[in-house]
Amino acid sequence: MTARAAAHRWVRPGALGAGGLRYGADYNPEQWPRDVWHEDMRLMREAGVNIVSLGIFSWALLEPRPGEWDFGWLDEVMDLLHDNGIDVDLATATASPPPWLTRLHPEVLPVTADETVLYPGGRQHWRPTSPVFRRYALRLVRALAERYRDHPALVAWHISNELGCHNAFDYSDDAAAAFRVWLRGRYGTLDALNDAWGTAFWSQHYGAWDEILPPRIAAAQRNPGRQLDFERFSSDALREHLRAEAAVLAEVTPDVPRTTNFMVCQNIRDIDYATWAGDVDFVSNDHYLRPGELGRDDLSFWANLTGNLAEGHPWFLMEHATSAVNWREVNPPKRAGELRRDALTHVGHGADAVCYFQWRQSRAGGERYHSAMVPHAGADSRVFRDVVALGAELRALAPVAGSHRERARVALLFDYESWWVSGRDSHPSDALRYDAETLTWYRALLDRGVRVDVLPVHAAFEGYEVVIAPMLHVVPDGLRRRLEEVVLDGRHVLATYFSGVVDEHDRVWLGGYPGGLRDLLGVTVEEFVPLLPGTRVRLSSGAVATTWTERITRVGADVEVIDTYADGDLAGGPAVTRRRVGGGSATYVSADVARAGAVDLLRAWAAEVDALRGEPLAADGRLETIVRAKGGTRFVFLANRTDEAVDVPVTGERVGAGGAGAERAGTEPVWRIGPGEVAIVAQPGS
Ligand code: GLA
Questions:
Q1: Atom number of ligand 1 nearest to Cα 286
Q2: Whole-angstrom Cα distance, residue 55 to residue 90?
Q3: Rounded-to-integer distance, Cα 542 and Cα 72, Å
Q4: Do 144 and 93 touch, CB atoms closer than 8 A?
């Protein structure tokens, strides 16, 4: 991705298990009496658990009073795990400060935009920029590192936990001071800042750095440039904390790899993980299944992005759920087969570890109804039987470990800043959803059987024949040039509505939309025409828009109109256009054409663009095909996206158990892949 990322070390045999896949969970033995620990060891062995994340929320027990340590219980657990052949991804335990710390130093507590203090009693109640918190946290990190540096169970460090899960945005005075330092670093002068933020508007001009505050609740719309920089700053502030802990660990245990669990998923958009990937020795992610019909594809989307944040290298699935979570409005359990399907879909997208939150379901506390590997019912349960079966299957998948994602020919761009900015207030419509739009196009590509990489926008576009940019709203000059190069190189770009509109300061590009992409796409939009709730606008192709349309008033001479609005105020006007440049092209989709509209468009386009033809093994999109490769072998994961069995002719050797049924009679072996199942075939190839 970047020079920075390329420079750091990626291969972590110790933590990722060169000999096979990792399997385990967050382990919270401090919630249980000792006799349960012994049962845990027996059950972990039965399940094939070979790694646990330990001590994540243990600060209050490890340091019961300031500077007084109690490592006895942790020593015991570390030894017990090691005696049972289980490695430890040891937490730095800083995620949740103990009550004594916040009593002594209430000034570490985070503050919301309306100046509400977030009190202790939950978790993660600390300011990312608090020097006081940092001092106590790093003292704990050092104490742990020195204590366990030579412990044979230690294979990786787990820095904090889901940094920013509850404290991503802090509006305290500490944050204000750090924000100003960050802004000075970015802009150098107040003139540059005033220009970037457009502070001539509403008398917002700053005459001194101290006048600048975080975007606390205000009387009217807050300055968008400041909002965007505050989001960037907040993501960077958490990264600074990550770096500070990592630096201590690097000093004391230079050879132990360090990670922190990202939250690359639909419900967390606060952190630009593309800027974090270079700060960990291996990428880890937590993902929780979205309930309902789009859950499977949603999981695939975020796993795919995680794999590409890791630049195709293996990554670590640090948390997912065996069954229900406890934090949505309704929390249904997973259906039969979903535990296996979810785990193997992550493995397909590059996970070399399959871990859960958590090992044993808590008896008390706010997460007592969250599923675990060992449920309240105990080991004689559907979930634990599935857990044991998955453990056996993961052992059989050992050959897959260490393999890399095979690059797809199609990239779907993902840009955290476009996610932040397109969802801002005071826009033409509050109904725009960046994550939904990107997922719509991802699903349409899967429906067509196309293998695609969900690619962080800063990654290189080289080698991708098609680059799809749904709602790529923030387009600085550099990005515009990179997209233009794709087309000049004879390759293809597709952008959808509300793309290209603003620069890196959320200032509108002038001369008509899609602003930064206007020349590339060869069209000018004079007005956005968002749709009122309940309105439907048909396109000539049959696609239907329900949220957004645009008035395209100029179509370049080299641009073909490939779809028009069929009704509404824009009837007869261009809706979808394609500019051809040599062998390359730039397509613009000015409306939310939904999954069906996107599928039709991709189908028609496939007549001229080979990369969109769909993989033969994808069985017309009923299967998702995911490929990992190493040492002359391709591991093709065939994941059934439907509720019916799919028969597909496959040559190659089956890897692991379960999934595909027996070969059937006939000249070619045909695999039957049951509803929601995942089968893996090994084929020769790099
Ligand atoms: C997050 C946290 C875990 C746990 C799970 C529950 O991922 O990291 O500690 O709270 O959520 O889903």
A1: 7
A2: 7
A3: 68
A4: yes
- The one-letter amino acid at 666: G
- 147 C-alpha to ligand 1 centroid (Å): 26
Domain 616-684 has CATH 1.10.150.120: no
> What is the distance between the alpha carbons of residues 578 and 590, in angstroms, rounded to a whole number?
11
Ranges in the chain annotated CATH 2.60.40.1180: 616-684
Whether 162 sits among the annotated catalytic residues: the reply is yes
The H or E element spanning position 454 is: strand 452-456
Q: Which DSSP helix (H) or strand (E) runs through 79?
A: helix 72-83
Phi/psi-derived region of residue 165, left when phi > 0, alpha when psi is between -120 and 50, beta in every other case: alpha
Instruction: Establish whether residue 318 lines the binding site of ligand 1, counting it when its CB lies within 6 angstroms of any ligand atom.
Output: no
Percentage of the chain exceeding pLDDT 90:
95
**Cβ(357) to ligand 1 under 6 A?**
yes
* Cα separation, 141 vs 589, whole angstroms: 51
187 DSSP β-pair partners: none
Model-level pTM?
0.97
Q: Mean pLDDT over residues 15-27, rounded?
A: 86
The catalytically annotated residue of 162, 245, 550, 615 is: 162
* pLDDT attached to residue 3: 33
Residues of the chain with CATH 3.40.50.880: 410-612
- Which residue among 367, 368, 369, 371 has the greatest number of ligand 1 atoms within 8 angstroms of its CB, and so is best to mutate? 367
**Protein residue with its CA nearest to atom 4 in ligand 1:** 357
Report the pLDDT value the prediction gives residue 19, as an integer from 0 to 100.
Answer: 81
What is the per-residue pLDDT across 397-450, written as a single tens digit (0 to 9) for each? 999 999 999 999 999 999 999 999 999 999 999 999 999 999 999 999 999 999
Residue 686 banded pLDDT, cuts 50, 70, 90: confident
Q: What would the CATH number be for the domain defined by 410-612?
A: 3.40.50.880
Q: Is 319 a catalytic residue?
A: yes
